[in-house]
Design goal:
globular; alpha/beta; single chain; 14% strand; 10 helices; 316 residues
Length: 316
Amino acid sequence: MRDIKFIEVTSEIGAGTRGASLGIGAVKVASINSGSNFFRDYNAVEVETENEILFSETKTPYAKYIEQVYMMENRMCEVVSKVIKSDQFPFVLAGDHSTAAGTIAGIKTENPDKRLGVIWIDAHADLNTPYTTPSGNMHGMPLAMVADIDNLENKINEPSETTINIWNDLKNIGSSGAKINLEDIVFIAARALEKAEQELVNKYNITNFDTEQVREKGVENIVSETLNILEGCDIIYVSFDVDSIGSEISIGTGTPVPNGLTVDEAIQLNKLFVANEKVCAWEIVEVNPTLDTNNVMANSALKVMEVVREELENRL
């Protein structure tokens, strides 16, 4: 029987709004207040962060704090790789979504010959690059990093030579070149795409099941269709950004967007996905209690985590 290995990374340097570094602590508070057993026998590896750089102004406006992001991706790659090598299942609790690139690089490091599919449950596509980003926030770039794309066809920025050099290094973390094919991504609840990202979605025919489709088809059908799309993949990684949940329910995340999933829909989606034998890692990101009231988002995140953990323990 395989063990679940929890990985905590409280980095928030990729986000545009401060506070995601406190997300894991907020979930732990939610656990204590609710009497949950989730953290009772919890054994986690903590990834060192570079959050202190946030007290300084970034020198790379089209990829903010890219040098420190590069350091974080390398650390995540190494930790995830080590966990998989130990025949454990990575259960990642992260601050901002930028570190997902390191998670994917770590998975690919230990599975170099396997085709990796990605289920991205998120309000955003996170396919921007330093050439296309309107904000410079690197939590909007992890999928572009691991797909080894620049999207120069939709270029609006002129990044510095420093930015370009580190960006190219980011795309080669863990191994040279792309870790995933863009066609092997499935978005769920993505509803705040930039024009440059939408161009990529159209060009590569990437599936995006929006909230309305989740309601019309039902969660079970969405899960089934997603797994059919990724049928050619040997392994699958699931990344759950809490902003996939609608801002009507909670604003406790850095980039809340209305018309998202309900908590129950998020629970059922993640539960059914991790029940599949191909799923090799699961991640939750972007809880920000500084933006919330009564710790609502952390309470919702805990509910999802409890169900995912239970399902994985039954499966593994």
